[in-house]
């Protein structure tokens, strides 16, 4: 009985893997689009289409998640990520943009982004990724294809 219990405990512990998600970068991109969105990036060419450079990403064993917000025509906006909650079937990100305190300066349109690098072993088709404001208003949503 002890051996069976030890074996079951071992199987449970192996099933509970710790997924390490890195916040790789935050910044601005001139890639325009309509509205806020979350994108799943599986290769360097897709990442370059968004105007984001991330030379350290190993796409053979990792993938990226990018939260794009905007576009804006005044300088100084930045993203604030309050929390990330991951479950078995969903990921919920609480985020918002902070406008510039001084109102900003006129500039050509841009979008803010936050880039996360996730181990490829965490990729599961059908997982829903939802981004909401602190007031629980939905900003963006996608499902891992």
Helix-strand layout with pairing:
Elements: H1 2-15, E1 22-29, E2 37-41, H2 44-49, E3 62-74, E4 78-86, E5 90-98, E6 106-119, E7 128-132, E8 138-143
Parallel strand pairs: 5-7
Antiparallel strand pairs: 1-6, 2-3, 3-6, 4-5, 7-8
Average of pLDDT: 86
Described by the principal axes of the CA atoms, the overall outline is: globular
Total number of strands:
8
Distance between the termini: 43 Å
Number of domains: 1
Helical segment tally? 2
Give the proportion of residues in helices: 10-25%
Order of helices and strands: HEEHEEEEEE
**Helix/strand class:** mainly beta
Radius of gyration: 18 Å
Short account of what is shown:
The protein has 145 residues and is mainly beta. The protein has helices at 2-15, 44-49; strands at 22-29, 37-41, 62-74, 78-86, 90-98, 106-119, 128-132, 138-143. Helices cover 14% and strands 48% of the residues.
Please provide a written account of the structure:
This protein has 145 residues and is mainly beta. It has one domain (19-143). It has helices at 2-15, 44-49, and strands at residues 22-29, 37-41, 62-74, 78-86, 90-98, 106-119, 128-132, 138-143. The chain has a four-stranded antiparallel sheet with strand order 1-6-3-2. Strands 4-5-7-8 form a four-stranded mixed sheet, with no helix packed on it. It is globular and about 45 Å long.
